[in-house]
Amino acid sequence: MASTNPLFFLLLSxxxxxxxxxxxxxxxxxxxxxxxxFYKSTCPNLESIIRLELQRAFxxxxxxxxxxxxxxxxxCFVQGCDGSxxxxxxxxxxxxxxxPPNLTLRKExxxxxxxxxxxxxxxxxxxxxxxxxTALAARESVFLSGxxxxxxxxxxxxxxxxxxxxATLKFLPSPRSNVSVLLAALALxxxxxxxxxxxxxxxxxxxxxxxxxxxxxxxxRDPSMDQTFFNNLRLTCPTSSTTNTTNLDVRTPDVFDNKxxxxxxxxxxxxxxDQDLYSDGRTNPVVSAFANDQGLFxxxxxxxxxxxxxxxxxxxxxxxxxANCSARNPGTGWSVVDGEEGGSVxxx
Length: 348
Ligand code: HEM
What we know:
Keywords: Calcium, Disulfide bond, Glycoprotein, Heme, Hydrogen peroxide, Iron, Metal-binding, Oxidoreductase, Peroxidase, Secreted, Signal. This protein has helices spanning about 5-20, 45-60, 65-75, 105-125, 130-145, 165-170, 180-185, 195-200, 210-215, 225-235, 260-265, 270-280, 285-290, 295-310, 345; strands at about 205-210, 245, 335, 340-345. Helix 1 (about 5-20) crosses helix 13 (about 285-290). The longest helix has 18 residues, at about 105-125. By secondary structure, it is mainly alpha-helical. Protoporphyrin IX containing FE binds near residues 177 and 209.
């Protein structure tokens, strides 16, 4: 088979490097209002504070890294990287956080973002947004787990509103999606086939619940799944309603590496949305290239993360810098109704 020939991969890697997405530029163009030096004078130690705090936190809870990475993705895909996923519900309605795809975001990851915010406010005052802290925490999750150490453009402001459950469901694809559905969902955010395969590599760390992949093991084995992998999953999830969890990357569950793609090549991807990347001809060559070249994956992942991290950002004088990542600052962003503050409905 051509795909096992090393020359084939060499050619493929070369083609990928020459593709329009991967020319000499190693980072996408900056969104208006963002810069790599945004806090240089106002919070010069920001990045080292976050790195040191998370280094310590990951030692006692390795899963926190996965939780933080996923929060940034869920923040950016829905209404942009504005920290809206961090907000608790309010009188105006249930929060984005309580929409179905967000129910499995880790509470300790939300707590960690608030703790980082408090720590940063002590060092620099209230200058760094929760959306920027989330983006930097995601980078540390990748880097401290063994992945690339990419630069994060900063200057995001925190949004004043959160998305509805319907909007959340529209922008966050289900794990049962095939590649066509995934590509259509990513296109809503101007992300393409290369972004899809690279960003899905986030599944090299973390866990999934049986309910997220029970369609592949009940009533019988999805034919695109390896038999032994299936047997083991059926032990973890004896019934389709079990609430157990399993690792997303069966080879190196806590290490940020390219083994997720090796899993896919071996038909050991967990979700339909993972395994179909190998089955579908549009994404298969990229999966194979990443499975064979970790450096290529790291480069493309960093590129797509920076691109994702700039989706619909609020900058300049828009939004605010929250004092508590879970709540809008009191008295801000509220419309004035009958001379009183608090008419929140109009603000949404
Ligand atoms: C492309 C479409 C994607 C789908 C359909 C998807 C779906 C899911 C699902 C269903 C889970 C497990 C939820 C559970 O059962 O507990 C999960 C976990 C996770 N996802 Fe994704 N995801 C996608 C893209 C991404 C992206 C772009 C990233 C980051 C770059 C990411 C990072 C993660 C991480 C790190 C976890 C583990 C979280 C933890 O252990 O707490 N995912 N994803």
